[in-house]
Amino acid sequence: MKRSLTKNCWITQQQTWQQSPVKKPLITKARKSVAGFKIRQGYPIGCKVTLRGERMWEFFERLITIAVPRIRDFRGLSAKSFDGRGNYSMGVREQIIFPEIDYDKVDRVRGLDITITTTAKSDEEGRALLAAFDFPFRK
């Protein structure tokens, strides 16, 4: 746990994501102290990136055509990960599924969460929208 709280770790993680064509990640900080996790208010606990426009479409295309099929033991993504409003969330255990990230420059394999926000009003509409983009849902 101590390793994830060091400033050098966050700088390394930011540099890893800057290798890919996403913009600079924003470091998220703890809103309150939690003794059980040994974090204090204001400690860096994650990074987030919001993509829009052309970068969003490039990332989405690379995600479904290149990165997701590189997931170990990949058999399709769950169609149950919608939030009730048509938005889809998925977790990835390794950031190295993206070909832009150089494996030799990664100090530690980290996971990430991806949320795809859609204009759909329901899960069924969101599922149909992503299926129209050939999103690899599990059969």
Within the largest sheet, what's the order of strands?
A: 1-2
Number of strands: 4
Uncertain spans:
1-5
Query: What pattern of helices and strands is seen along the backbone?
Result: HEEHEEH
Q: Class by helix and strand content? A: alpha+beta
What would CATH call the architecture of the largest domain?
A: 2-Layer Sandwich
How would you name the CATH homologous superfamily of the largest domain?
Ribosomal protein L5
Looking at the chains present, what oligomeric state does this protein adopt?
Answer: single chain
Q: Quick one: CATH class of the largest domain?
A: Alpha Beta
Shape: globular
Count of discrete alpha- or pi-helical segments spanning 4 or more residues: 3
What number is the mean pLDDT? 83
CATH topology of the largest domain: 50s Ribosomal Protein L5, Chain: A
Helix content: 25-40%
Number of domains: 2
- End-to-end span in angstroms? 38 Å
Proportion in β-strands: 5-15%
What does the radius of gyration come to? 16 Å
Main pleated sheet: 2 strands, antiparallel
Would you give an account of this structure?
The protein has 139 residues and is α+β, with helices and mostly antiparallel strands. It has two domains: 1-49, no CATH class; 51-139, 50s Ribosomal Protein L5, Chain: A, CATH 3.30.1440.10. It has three helices and four strands. It has helices at residues 7-18, 53-67, 123-132; strands at 26-29, 44-48, 88-92, 112-116. The chain has a two-stranded antiparallel sheet with strand order 1-2. Mean pLDDT is 83; it is low at 1-5. It holds the Pfam family Ribosomal_L5_C. Keywords: Ribonucleoprotein, Ribosomal protein, RNA-binding, rRNA-binding, tRNA-binding. It comes from Escherichia coli. InterPro entries: Ribosomal_uL5 (IPR002132), Ribosomal_uL5_bac-type (IPR020930), Ribosomal_uL5_C (IPR031309), Ribosomal_uL5_dom_sf (IPR022803).
